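cron nightly-structures :: item 1 of 1
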Amino acid sequence: MARDKFHEIVRIALEKDGWTITHDPYPLQLTRRKLGIDLGAEKLIAAVRESEKIAVEIKSFRNDSFMYDMHEALGQYLVYQPFLQRKEAGRMLFLAVPQPVYDEYFMDEDIEFLCEQYHLKIVVFNPQTELIVLWKK
């Protein structure tokens, strides 16, 4: 499985945000096939002594057509989501998006509508500072 251009940057950003990377990649075993979500992470919530668990699919959106990249990203998200829930129902799936892409495209009302329709959870990261700038659940 080829890693996305921003794989290490997102990993670093999650760690800076207090997450522990538990899987790289997070494996999904289907009946006859294997899938891998880019990262699995966990964060301890001290007040209740529980942990929050996530899986993160990283996308760079580097093709000439944003909509082509969006089709690909949404398709992966929709395929991974039910298998992740079957394996580990408490783990939330996020799509990691670079901040410049988010600012340019994801603020568009049609893309916002699409994300709402499919309950897309997004984590926005800044590639230069290697920081998480937004969690959109």
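cron nightly-structures :: done
The chain has a mean pLDDT of 92.
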